[in-house]
Protein backbone atom coordinates (compact mmCIF):
# COMPACT_ATOMS: atom_id res chain seq x y z
CA UNK A 1 0.00 0.00 0.00
CA UNK A 2 1.43 3.35 -1.05
CA UNK A 3 0.52 6.49 0.91
CA UNK A 4 1.37 9.84 -0.70
CA UNK A 5 1.24 12.88 1.53
CA UNK A 6 -0.77 15.67 -0.09
CA UNK A 7 -0.94 18.13 2.81
CA UNK A 8 -2.76 18.57 6.13
CA UNK A 9 -5.23 15.64 6.49
CA UNK A 10 -5.04 14.85 2.80
CA UNK A 11 -3.40 11.77 1.33
CA UNK A 12 -3.63 9.52 -1.67
CA UNK A 13 -3.76 5.78 -0.96
CA UNK A 14 -2.73 3.54 -3.86
CA UNK A 15 -3.15 -0.22 -4.14
CA UNK A 16 -3.29 -2.60 -7.10
CA UNK A 17 -7.08 -2.66 -6.63
CA UNK A 18 -7.60 1.08 -6.76
CA UNK A 19 -6.69 4.51 -5.42
CA UNK A 20 -8.37 6.70 -2.79
CA UNK A 21 -7.90 10.45 -2.43
CA UNK A 22 -8.72 11.66 1.09
CA UNK A 23 -9.68 15.18 2.21
CA UNK A 24 -7.84 17.25 -0.43
CA UNK A 25 -7.52 20.83 0.91
CA UNK A 26 -5.51 23.46 -0.96
CA UNK A 27 -7.40 26.78 -0.97
CA UNK A 28 -7.55 29.06 2.09
CA UNK A 29 -10.37 28.33 4.53
CA UNK A 30 -12.40 30.24 7.12
CA UNK A 31 -12.29 33.78 5.74
CA UNK A 32 -8.78 33.21 4.33
CA UNK A 33 -7.33 32.66 7.79
CA UNK A 34 -6.21 29.02 7.49
CA UNK A 35 -3.75 27.73 4.88
CA UNK A 36 -2.29 24.21 4.60
CA UNK A 37 1.27 23.96 5.93
CA UNK A 38 3.55 22.80 4.47
CA UNK A 39 2.26 24.36 1.25
CA UNK A 40 0.68 21.81 -1.09
CA UNK A 41 -0.54 24.14 -3.85
CA UNK A 42 2.42 23.30 -6.12
CA UNK A 43 1.79 19.55 -6.22
CA UNK A 44 0.76 17.89 -9.49
CA UNK A 45 -2.95 17.90 -8.69
CA UNK A 46 -3.87 17.11 -12.30
CA UNK A 47 -2.41 13.64 -11.69
CA UNK A 48 -3.21 13.29 -8.00
CA UNK A 49 -6.89 13.97 -8.68
CA UNK A 50 -7.23 11.10 -11.16
CA UNK A 51 -8.37 8.48 -8.67
CA UNK A 52 -10.87 5.65 -8.39
CA UNK A 53 -12.33 6.78 -5.08
CA UNK A 54 -12.80 10.00 -3.12
CA UNK A 55 -13.22 10.11 0.64
CA UNK A 56 -14.14 13.32 2.46
CA UNK A 57 -14.22 12.75 6.21
CA UNK A 58 -16.49 15.69 7.07
CA UNK A 59 -17.56 19.15 5.95
CA UNK A 60 -15.03 21.30 7.78
CA UNK A 61 -13.48 23.55 5.13
CA UNK A 62 -9.95 22.30 5.79
CA UNK A 63 -11.23 18.88 4.65
CA UNK A 64 -13.98 19.80 2.22
CA UNK A 65 -12.42 22.22 -0.31
CA UNK A 66 -15.25 22.76 -2.80
CA UNK A 67 -13.19 24.71 -5.33
CA UNK A 68 -10.41 22.14 -5.39
CA UNK A 69 -12.83 19.22 -5.59
CA UNK A 70 -14.62 20.88 -8.50
CA UNK A 71 -11.50 21.79 -10.44
CA UNK A 72 -8.98 19.02 -9.74
CA UNK A 73 -10.66 15.74 -8.77
CA UNK A 74 -12.00 13.34 -11.39
CA UNK A 75 -15.79 13.17 -11.52
CA UNK A 76 -15.42 9.52 -12.48
CA UNK A 77 -14.30 8.85 -8.90
CA UNK A 78 -16.72 6.98 -6.66
CA UNK A 79 -17.35 8.86 -3.44
CA UNK A 80 -17.03 6.77 -0.27
CA UNK A 81 -19.80 8.41 1.72
CA UNK A 82 -20.04 8.23 5.54
CA UNK A 83 -23.46 7.43 6.98
CA UNK A 84 -24.20 10.93 8.29
CA UNK A 85 -27.59 12.00 9.69
CA UNK A 86 -28.16 14.65 7.04
CA UNK A 87 -27.70 14.63 3.26
CA UNK A 88 -25.56 17.79 3.17
CA UNK A 89 -22.28 16.17 2.13
CA UNK A 90 -23.86 14.20 -0.71
CA UNK A 91 -25.84 17.25 -1.84
CA UNK A 92 -22.74 19.44 -1.93
CA UNK A 93 -20.66 16.84 -3.77
CA UNK A 94 -23.41 16.31 -6.35
CA UNK A 95 -23.51 20.07 -6.88
CA UNK A 96 -19.78 19.91 -7.68
CA UNK A 97 -20.34 17.26 -10.36
CA UNK A 98 -19.82 13.97 -8.53
CA UNK A 99 -22.41 11.36 -9.45
CA UNK A 100 -21.09 8.01 -8.19
CA UNK A 101 -21.62 7.30 -4.48
CA UNK A 102 -21.02 4.30 -2.29
CA UNK A 103 -23.00 4.89 0.89
CA UNK A 104 -20.99 2.88 3.40
CA UNK A 105 -23.08 1.36 6.20
CA UNK A 106 -21.65 2.56 9.49
CA UNK A 107 -18.88 0.34 10.91
CA UNK A 108 -19.44 -2.37 8.31
CA UNK A 109 -16.63 -3.69 6.10
CA UNK A 110 -17.34 -3.20 2.40
CA UNK A 111 -15.33 -5.15 -0.18
CA UNK A 112 -14.67 -3.18 -3.36
CA UNK A 113 -13.70 -4.69 -6.73
CA UNK A 114 -10.25 -6.27 -6.74
CA UNK A 115 -10.23 -7.17 -3.06
CA UNK A 116 -9.84 -3.66 -1.64
CA UNK A 117 -11.74 -3.43 1.67
CA UNK A 118 -12.91 -0.30 3.44
CA UNK A 119 -14.89 0.56 6.56
CA UNK A 120 -16.10 4.00 7.62
CA UNK A 121 -17.00 4.93 11.17
CA UNK A 122 -19.30 7.95 11.26
CA UNK A 123 -19.62 10.05 14.40
CA UNK A 124 -22.95 11.85 14.54
CA UNK A 125 -23.11 14.04 17.63
CA UNK A 126 -23.97 17.70 16.93
CA UNK A 127 -20.52 18.51 18.32
CA UNK A 128 -18.68 16.17 15.90
CA UNK A 129 -17.48 18.39 13.08
CA UNK A 130 -20.32 20.19 11.31
CA UNK A 131 -22.94 17.58 12.22
CA UNK A 132 -20.68 14.61 11.61
CA UNK A 133 -17.08 13.40 11.46
CA UNK A 134 -15.63 10.07 10.36
CA UNK A 135 -12.64 7.76 10.05
CA UNK A 136 -11.65 5.49 7.16
CA UNK A 137 -10.15 2.00 7.57
CA UNK A 138 -8.56 0.41 4.49
CA UNK A 139 -7.21 -3.11 3.90
CA UNK A 140 -5.53 -4.63 0.87
CA UNK A 141 -3.75 -7.99 0.85
CA UNK A 142 -3.30 -7.98 4.62
CA UNK A 143 -1.99 -4.40 4.91
CA UNK A 144 -4.29 -2.25 7.05
CA UNK A 145 -4.46 1.52 7.41
CA UNK A 146 -6.61 3.72 9.64
CA UNK A 147 -7.12 7.33 8.58
CA UNK A 148 -8.55 8.76 11.81
CA UNK A 149 -7.87 12.40 10.79
CA UNK A 150 -9.81 14.75 13.17
CA UNK A 151 -12.29 12.20 14.47
CA UNK A 152 -12.50 11.53 18.20
CA UNK A 153 -14.23 8.18 18.71
CA UNK A 154 -14.69 7.00 22.27
CA UNK A 155 -12.44 4.04 21.45
CA UNK A 156 -10.80 2.30 18.50
CA UNK A 157 -12.00 -1.21 19.31
CA UNK A 158 -14.06 -1.54 16.14
CA UNK A 159 -10.90 -1.07 14.07
CA UNK A 160 -8.59 -3.17 16.24
CA UNK A 161 -10.98 -6.12 16.01
CA UNK A 162 -10.47 -6.22 12.23
CA UNK A 163 -6.82 -7.13 12.62
CA UNK A 164 -3.49 -5.51 13.39
CA UNK A 165 -3.15 -2.04 11.83
CA UNK A 166 0.08 -1.15 10.07
CA UNK A 167 -0.42 2.60 9.49
CA UNK A 168 -2.31 4.89 11.87
CA UNK A 169 -2.84 8.48 10.68
CA UNK A 170 -4.33 10.89 13.23
CA UNK A 171 -4.62 14.48 14.39
CA UNK A 172 -2.30 15.80 17.09
CA UNK A 173 -2.50 19.58 16.85
CA UNK A 174 -5.12 22.23 17.56
CA UNK A 175 -8.04 23.05 15.28
CA UNK A 176 -10.02 25.55 17.30
CA UNK A 177 -10.12 29.22 18.37
CA UNK A 178 -9.64 28.64 22.11
CA UNK A 179 -8.02 30.25 24.00
CA UNK A 180 -6.41 32.64 21.52
CA UNK A 181 -9.45 34.82 20.82
CA UNK A 182 -10.61 35.20 24.42
CA UNK A 183 -10.18 38.58 26.09
CA UNK A 184 -7.94 37.38 28.90
CA UNK A 185 -4.67 38.53 30.47
CA UNK A 186 -1.78 37.09 28.49
CA UNK A 187 -0.61 34.97 31.43
CA UNK A 188 -4.02 33.32 31.71
CA UNK A 189 -4.23 32.80 27.96
CA UNK A 190 -0.82 31.12 27.99
CA UNK A 191 -1.78 28.87 30.91
CA UNK A 192 -5.04 27.79 29.28
CA UNK A 193 -3.26 27.25 25.97
CA UNK A 194 -0.62 25.07 27.61
CA UNK A 195 -3.35 22.98 29.26
CA UNK A 196 -5.04 22.50 25.90
CA UNK A 197 -1.76 21.67 24.16
CA UNK A 198 -0.97 19.05 26.80
CA UNK A 199 -4.49 17.55 26.54
CA UNK A 200 -4.12 17.32 22.75
CA UNK A 201 -0.98 15.26 23.11
CA UNK A 202 -2.42 13.13 25.94
CA UNK A 203 -5.43 12.26 23.78
CA UNK A 204 -3.15 11.40 20.86
CA UNK A 205 -0.98 9.12 23.02
CA UNK A 206 -4.12 7.35 24.24
CA UNK A 207 -5.33 6.66 20.70
CA UNK A 208 -1.88 5.49 19.62
CA UNK A 209 -1.66 3.14 22.60
CA UNK A 210 -5.16 1.81 21.92
CA UNK A 211 -4.41 0.79 18.34
CA UNK A 212 -0.72 -0.13 18.68
CA UNK A 213 -0.12 0.25 14.95
CA UNK A 214 3.30 -0.40 13.45
CA UNK A 215 3.63 3.17 12.20
CA UNK A 216 2.08 6.44 13.34
CA UNK A 217 1.64 9.38 10.96
CA UNK A 218 0.80 12.81 12.49
CA UNK A 219 -1.67 14.53 10.14
CA UNK A 220 -4.58 17.00 10.14
CA UNK A 221 -2.64 19.92 11.44
CA UNK A 222 -1.59 22.43 12.09
CA UNK A 223 -2.78 25.08 9.65
CA UNK A 224 -0.71 28.20 9.16
CA UNK A 225 -1.87 31.81 9.43
CA UNK A 226 -0.54 34.10 6.71
CA UNK A 227 -2.62 37.24 7.26
CA UNK A 228 -0.55 39.80 9.16
CA UNK A 229 -3.42 40.18 11.66
CA UNK A 230 -3.23 36.45 12.52
CA UNK A 231 0.50 35.80 12.13
CA UNK A 232 0.95 35.49 15.92
CA UNK A 233 -1.01 32.22 15.93
CA UNK A 234 1.81 30.35 14.17
CA UNK A 235 3.92 28.28 16.56
CA UNK A 236 7.16 30.13 15.84
CA UNK A 237 7.28 32.58 18.73
CA UNK A 238 8.37 30.33 21.59
CA UNK A 239 4.93 30.46 23.20
CA UNK A 240 4.38 27.36 25.36
CA UNK A 241 0.65 28.10 25.20
CA UNK A 242 0.42 27.87 21.42
CA UNK A 243 -2.07 25.11 20.49
CA UNK A 244 -0.68 24.58 16.96
CA UNK A 245 2.50 22.48 17.38
CA UNK A 246 3.80 21.09 14.10
CA UNK A 247 4.87 17.61 13.04
CA UNK A 248 8.47 18.09 14.19
CA UNK A 249 7.21 18.99 17.68
CA UNK A 250 5.03 15.88 17.57
CA UNK A 251 8.08 13.69 16.96
CA UNK A 252 9.91 15.35 19.86
CA UNK A 253 6.99 14.99 22.29
CA UNK A 254 6.28 11.45 21.10
CA UNK A 255 9.87 10.48 21.83
CA UNK A 256 9.42 11.67 25.43
CA UNK A 257 6.72 9.03 25.96
CA UNK A 258 8.76 6.32 24.23
CA UNK A 259 7.42 6.72 20.70
CA UNK A 260 9.85 5.56 18.02
CA UNK A 261 7.54 4.72 15.11
CA UNK A 262 6.44 8.18 13.98
CA UNK A 263 6.61 9.09 10.29
CA UNK A 264 6.04 12.61 8.96
CA UNK A 265 4.49 13.08 5.53
CA UNK A 266 5.36 16.32 3.77
CA UNK A 267 3.38 17.17 0.62
CA UNK A 268 4.96 14.85 -1.91
CA UNK A 269 6.32 12.34 0.63
CA UNK A 270 5.66 8.70 -0.29
CA UNK A 271 5.42 5.85 2.24
CA UNK A 272 5.40 2.26 1.01
CA UNK A 273 3.64 0.30 3.76
CA UNK A 274 3.80 -3.49 4.01
CA UNK A 275 3.13 -6.02 6.74
CA UNK A 276 6.88 -6.01 7.38
CA UNK A 277 7.56 -2.29 7.62
CA UNK A 278 7.49 1.06 5.86
CA UNK A 279 9.96 2.91 3.66
CA UNK A 280 9.49 6.62 3.11
CA UNK A 281 10.93 9.09 0.63
CA UNK A 282 10.59 12.86 0.98
CA UNK A 283 10.88 15.77 -1.46
CA UNK A 284 13.23 17.45 1.04
CA UNK A 285 14.70 16.23 4.34
CA UNK A 286 12.05 16.61 7.06
CA UNK A 287 14.44 17.94 9.71
CA UNK A 288 15.85 20.51 7.31
CA UNK A 289 12.37 21.66 6.29
CA UNK A 290 11.17 22.36 9.82
CA UNK A 291 14.49 23.92 10.81
CA UNK A 292 13.67 26.57 8.18
CA UNK A 293 9.98 26.85 9.12
CA UNK A 294 10.00 30.63 9.62
CA UNK A 295 11.55 31.23 6.21
CA UNK A 296 8.99 28.92 4.57
CA UNK A 297 6.13 30.75 6.29
CA UNK A 298 7.47 34.18 5.33
CA UNK A 299 7.82 33.10 1.70
CA UNK A 300 4.27 31.72 1.72
CA UNK A 301 2.96 34.91 3.31
CA UNK A 302 4.31 37.05 0.47
CA UNK A 303 3.16 34.62 -2.21
CA UNK A 304 -0.39 34.37 -0.82
CA UNK A 305 -0.84 38.04 0.11
CA UNK A 306 -2.81 38.77 -3.05
CA UNK A 307 -5.12 35.82 -2.40
CA UNK A 308 -5.93 37.13 1.07
CA UNK A 309 -6.54 40.67 -0.14
CA UNK A 310 -8.85 39.46 -2.92
CA UNK A 311 -10.90 37.48 -0.40
CA UNK A 312 -11.15 40.45 1.96
CA UNK A 313 -12.43 42.62 -0.87
CA UNK A 314 -15.38 40.26 -1.34
CA UNK A 315 -16.74 40.42 2.21
CA UNK A 316 -18.37 43.85 2.36
CA UNK A 317 -22.07 44.06 1.52
CA UNK A 318 -23.23 47.46 2.75
CA UNK A 319 -26.64 46.90 1.17
CA UNK A 320 -27.41 44.26 3.82
CA UNK A 321 -29.30 45.27 6.94
CA UNK A 322 -27.51 43.01 9.43
CA UNK A 323 -30.11 43.27 12.18
CA UNK A 324 -32.94 42.45 9.79
CA UNK A 325 -30.90 39.66 8.20
CA UNK A 326 -30.08 38.06 11.54
CA UNK A 327 -33.72 38.32 12.63
CA UNK A 328 -34.88 36.65 9.43
CA UNK A 329 -32.33 33.83 9.68
CA UNK A 330 -32.24 33.18 13.43
CA UNK A 331 -35.67 33.95 14.93
CA UNK A 332 -37.56 31.09 13.19
CA UNK A 333 -34.89 28.70 14.51
CA UNK A 334 -35.20 30.10 18.03
CA UNK A 335 -38.92 29.37 17.84
CA UNK A 336 -38.15 25.74 16.92
CA UNK A 337 -35.43 25.25 19.52
CA UNK A 338 -36.04 23.67 22.90
CA UNK A 339 -32.84 22.00 24.07
CA UNK A 340 -30.33 24.34 22.46
CA UNK A 341 -32.17 27.49 23.53
CA UNK A 342 -32.53 26.19 27.08
CA UNK A 343 -28.89 25.10 27.08
CA UNK A 344 -27.67 28.59 26.07
CA UNK A 345 -29.99 30.01 28.71
CA UNK A 346 -29.37 33.72 28.17
CA UNK A 347 -28.67 36.46 25.63
CA UNK A 348 -25.60 36.33 23.37
CA UNK A 349 -24.22 39.64 22.10
CA UNK A 350 -22.50 40.41 18.82
CA UNK A 351 -20.50 43.65 18.65
CA UNK A 352 -20.06 44.46 14.96
CA UNK A 353 -17.23 46.86 14.14
CA UNK A 354 -17.97 49.11 11.18
CA UNK A 355 -15.87 49.74 8.09
CA UNK A 356 -14.23 52.69 9.83
CA UNK A 357 -12.82 50.36 12.49
CA UNK A 358 -14.39 52.43 15.22
CA UNK A 359 -18.20 52.46 15.16
CA UNK A 360 -19.95 49.47 16.73
CA UNK A 361 -23.45 48.06 16.31
CA UNK A 362 -24.43 45.66 19.12
CA UNK A 363 -27.01 42.98 18.42
CA UNK A 364 -28.37 40.46 20.89
CA UNK A 365 -29.60 36.95 20.15
CA UNK A 366 -32.01 36.56 23.05
CA UNK A 367 -32.44 32.82 23.56
CA UNK A 368 -35.00 32.97 26.41
CA UNK A 369 -36.95 35.72 24.63
CA UNK A 370 -36.66 33.93 21.24
CA UNK A 371 -35.75 37.11 19.38
CA UNK A 372 -32.90 39.03 17.75
CA UNK A 373 -32.84 42.69 18.75
CA UNK A 374 -30.59 45.66 19.46
CA UNK A 375 -28.53 45.40 22.63
CA UNK A 376 -30.32 47.01 25.59
CA UNK A 377 -27.45 47.31 28.09
CA UNK A 378 -28.35 44.06 29.81
CA UNK A 379 -25.86 41.57 31.22
CA UNK A 380 -24.86 38.86 28.74
CA UNK A 381 -23.04 35.59 29.34
CA UNK A 382 -21.34 35.46 25.92
CA UNK A 383 -20.07 38.34 23.81
CA UNK A 384 -18.42 38.19 20.39
CA UNK A 385 -16.69 41.12 18.67
CA UNK A 386 -15.97 40.96 14.94
CA UNK A 387 -16.05 43.02 11.76
CA UNK A 388 -19.49 43.84 10.45
CA UNK A 389 -18.33 42.83 6.97
CA UNK A 390 -17.87 39.21 8.06
CA UNK A 391 -21.47 38.91 9.25
CA UNK A 392 -22.65 40.71 6.11
CA UNK A 393 -20.87 38.04 4.07
CA UNK A 394 -22.38 35.20 6.11
CA UNK A 395 -25.84 36.59 5.45
CA UNK A 396 -25.05 37.26 1.78
CA UNK A 397 -24.02 33.64 1.12
CA UNK A 398 -26.79 32.25 3.33
CA UNK A 399 -24.26 30.43 5.51
CA UNK A 400 -25.88 27.79 7.74
CA UNK A 401 -22.79 27.15 9.87
CA UNK A 402 -21.17 30.14 11.55
CA UNK A 403 -18.78 27.85 13.44
CA UNK A 404 -17.41 26.43 10.17
CA UNK A 405 -16.74 29.95 8.93
CA UNK A 406 -16.62 32.86 11.39
CA UNK A 407 -15.49 31.16 14.59
CA UNK A 408 -12.82 28.92 13.08
CA UNK A 409 -11.45 31.97 11.28
CA UNK A 410 -10.24 33.37 14.63
CA UNK A 411 -11.20 36.78 13.20
CA UNK A 412 -13.08 37.74 16.34
CA UNK A 413 -12.62 38.18 20.06
CA UNK A 414 -14.79 36.65 22.76
CA UNK A 415 -15.65 37.12 26.40
CA UNK A 416 -17.88 35.07 28.65
CA UNK A 417 -19.18 35.00 32.18
CA UNK A 418 -18.90 31.56 33.74
CA UNK A 419 -18.07 28.27 32.12
CA UNK A 420 -17.81 27.24 28.50
CA UNK A 421 -21.25 26.55 27.04
CA UNK A 422 -21.26 23.99 24.22
CA UNK A 423 -24.86 24.89 23.31
CA UNK A 424 -23.83 28.35 22.09
CA UNK A 425 -21.60 26.89 19.40
CA UNK A 426 -23.95 23.97 18.70
CA UNK A 427 -26.71 26.47 17.88
CA UNK A 428 -24.57 28.61 15.57
CA UNK A 429 -23.53 25.56 13.53
CA UNK A 430 -27.22 24.66 13.09
CA UNK A 431 -28.65 27.68 11.25
CA UNK A 432 -30.93 25.59 9.07
CA UNK A 433 -34.10 23.71 9.90
CA UNK A 434 -32.54 20.35 8.92
CA UNK A 435 -29.53 20.82 11.17
CA UNK A 436 -31.49 22.28 14.06
CA UNK A 437 -34.07 19.51 14.06
CA UNK A 438 -31.33 16.88 14.05
CA UNK A 439 -29.50 18.54 16.95
CA UNK A 440 -32.71 18.95 18.95
CA UNK A 441 -33.55 15.29 18.41
CA UNK A 442 -30.05 14.18 19.39
CA UNK A 443 -30.12 16.14 22.65
CA UNK A 444 -33.64 14.92 23.36
CA UNK A 445 -32.55 11.30 22.96
CA UNK A 446 -29.48 11.75 25.13
CA UNK A 447 -31.32 13.69 27.82
CA UNK A 448 -33.79 10.84 28.13
CA UNK A 449 -31.15 8.10 28.09
CA UNK A 450 -29.98 7.09 31.54
CA UNK A 451 -26.66 5.30 31.79
CA UNK A 452 -27.10 3.08 34.83
CA UNK A 453 -23.70 1.33 34.73
CA UNK A 454 -21.13 2.45 37.29
CA UNK A 455 -17.39 1.88 37.53
CA UNK A 456 -14.81 2.42 40.26
CA UNK A 457 -12.02 4.94 39.73
CA UNK A 458 -9.73 5.24 42.72
CA UNK A 459 -11.81 6.08 45.77
CA UNK A 460 -14.90 6.93 43.70
CA UNK A 461 -17.77 5.11 42.05
CA UNK A 462 -18.86 7.04 38.94
CA UNK A 463 -21.15 6.47 35.99
CA UNK A 464 -19.30 4.70 33.22
CA UNK A 465 -20.16 7.13 30.42
CA UNK A 466 -19.10 10.78 30.42
CA UNK A 467 -22.16 13.07 30.48
CA UNK A 468 -20.62 15.12 27.69
CA UNK A 469 -20.37 12.74 24.71
CA UNK A 470 -20.59 9.32 26.35
CA UNK A 471 -16.86 8.54 26.40
CA UNK A 472 -16.03 5.41 28.39
CA UNK A 473 -14.61 6.73 31.66
CA UNK A 474 -13.08 3.36 32.46
CA UNK A 475 -10.62 4.24 29.69
CA UNK A 476 -10.61 8.03 29.52
CA UNK A 477 -11.41 8.94 33.13
CA UNK A 478 -8.66 10.14 35.48
CA UNK A 479 -9.40 10.93 39.14
CA UNK A 480 -7.18 13.38 41.00
CA UNK A 481 -8.43 13.99 44.52
CA UNK A 482 -12.05 15.05 44.23
CA UNK A 483 -11.91 15.87 40.52
CA UNK A 484 -12.59 13.66 37.52
CA UNK A 485 -11.13 14.50 34.09
CA UNK A 486 -12.36 12.86 30.89
CA UNK A 487 -9.25 12.87 28.71
CA UNK A 488 -11.16 12.52 25.45
CA UNK A 489 -12.18 16.19 25.44
CA UNK A 490 -10.62 17.45 28.69
CA UNK A 491 -13.89 17.94 30.57
CA UNK A 492 -13.59 18.09 34.38
CA UNK A 493 -16.12 17.30 37.11
CA UNK A 494 -16.30 17.97 40.85
CA UNK A 495 -17.08 14.53 42.24
CA UNK A 496 -18.69 15.43 45.58
CA UNK A 497 -21.31 17.60 43.87
CA UNK A 498 -21.27 16.00 40.41
CA UNK A 499 -20.99 19.49 38.94
CA UNK A 500 -19.18 19.97 35.63
CA UNK A 501 -16.29 22.42 35.98
CA UNK A 502 -15.82 22.81 32.24
CA UNK A 503 -19.29 23.66 30.94
CA UNK A 504 -22.86 24.16 32.02
CA UNK A 505 -25.67 21.66 31.74
CA UNK A 506 -23.81 18.45 32.60
CA UNK A 507 -23.55 16.49 35.85
CA UNK A 508 -21.83 13.25 36.66
CA UNK A 509 -23.25 10.66 39.05
CA UNK A 510 -20.63 9.80 41.67
CA UNK A 511 -20.12 8.74 45.28
CA UNK A 512 -17.22 7.56 47.38
CA UNK A 513 -16.57 3.83 47.46
CA UNK A 514 -17.28 3.68 51.20
CA UNK A 515 -20.40 5.89 51.02
CA UNK A 516 -24.02 4.92 50.54
CA UNK A 517 -25.27 4.55 46.97
CA UNK A 518 -26.72 7.89 45.78
CA UNK A 519 -30.15 8.52 44.31
CA UNK A 520 -31.08 6.75 41.05
CA UNK A 521 -29.36 8.09 37.94
CA UNK A 522 -32.39 9.91 36.60
CA UNK A 523 -32.73 11.90 39.81
CA UNK A 524 -29.00 12.50 40.13
CA UNK A 525 -28.82 13.97 36.63
CA UNK A 526 -31.95 16.10 36.82
Automatic annotation (TrEMBL):
Signal peptide: none annotated. It comes from the Bacteria. Residues 461-515 form the Rieske domain. GO terms for molecular function: 2 iron, 2 sulfur cluster binding; hydrolase activity; metal ion binding; monooxygenase activity; oxidoreductase activity, acting on paired donors, with incorporation or reduction of molecular oxygen. InterPro entries: RibonucZ/Hydroxyglut_hydro, Rieske_2Fe-2S, Rieske_2Fe-2S_sf, SCP2_Rv3818. Gene3D superfamilies: Ribonuclease Z/Hydroxyacylglutathione hydrolase-like, Rieske [2Fe-2S] iron-sulphur domain. Keywords: 2Fe-2S, Hydrolase, Iron, Iron-sulfur, Metal-binding. GO terms for cellular component: cytoplasm. This is MBL fold metallo-hydrolase. Pfam families: Rieske (PF00355), SCP2_Rv3818 (PF25451). PROSITE patterns: RIESKE. PANTHER family: N-ACYL-PHOSPHATIDYLETHANOLAMINE-HYDROLYZING PHOSPHOLIPASE D. It comes from Micromonospora endolithica.
Amino acid sequence: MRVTGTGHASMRIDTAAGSILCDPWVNPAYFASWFPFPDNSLLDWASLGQVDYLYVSHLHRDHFDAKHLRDHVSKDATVLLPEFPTSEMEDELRALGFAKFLKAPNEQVVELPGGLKIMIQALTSPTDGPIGDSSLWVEYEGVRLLNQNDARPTDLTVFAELGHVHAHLLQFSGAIWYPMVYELPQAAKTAFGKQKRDRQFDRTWRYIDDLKADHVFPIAGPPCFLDDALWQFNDIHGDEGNIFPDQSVFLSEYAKVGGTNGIVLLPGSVAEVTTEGATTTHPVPVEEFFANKVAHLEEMRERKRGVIEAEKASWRHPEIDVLAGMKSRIEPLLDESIYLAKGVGGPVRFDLVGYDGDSVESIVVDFPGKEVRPYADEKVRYRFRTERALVEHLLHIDEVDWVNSLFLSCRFSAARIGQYNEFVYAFFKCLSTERLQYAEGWYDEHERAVDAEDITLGDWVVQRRCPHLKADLSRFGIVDGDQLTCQLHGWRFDLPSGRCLTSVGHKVRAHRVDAETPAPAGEALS
